[in-house]
Amino acid sequence: MASSHDVDMTGNQTPPPIPSEEPKYGGFTRFEIELEFVQSLASPLYLNHLAAMKYFENEAFVEYLKYLQYWSHPPYSKYLLYPGPTLKNLELLQVKEFRRDIISPDVVARLFEEGVKKGTEGPGS
Questions:
Q1: pTM exceeds 0.90 for this model
Q2: DSSP one-letter code for 60
Q3: Is residue 98 part of a domain?
Q4: How much is the pLDDT for 97?
Q5: Using a CB cutoff of 8 Å and minimum separation of 24, what contacts does 67-73 make?
Q6: d(CA 4, CA 50)
Q7: Could you tell me which PANTHER family the record lists for this protein (predicted)?
């Protein structure tokens, strides 16, 4: 991945159109690229990696995370394979303290524990 200084977002970005005849970047549409990236945010280890690479210190990258919140709304949310952890972590990434704290192995472990606990609970738990 490019360095954290290579992120370039303009302030007036709009979500990509649902898969269509939009331009392709490296063979993929912007929709596909953003879908894959936002789904990767479900992984606490990936969040830790981004923190270790100092992406969360890049204001343009933080703005990009804010922009990605459109995935929490229909019609986009229906394309997420793991909407629960993806959207929860995207929401947590809006908080400066979380972006700072995710570098800690304890925070990563706690996110994993919460995910496992939710995955093993039955209906109504």
A1: no
A2: H
A3: yes
A4: 98
A5: 67/9, 67/13, 68/34, 68/37, 68/38, 69/94, 70/15, 71/34, 71/35, 71/38
A6: 9
A7: MEDIATOR OF RNA POLYMERASE II TRANSCRIPTION SUBUNIT 31
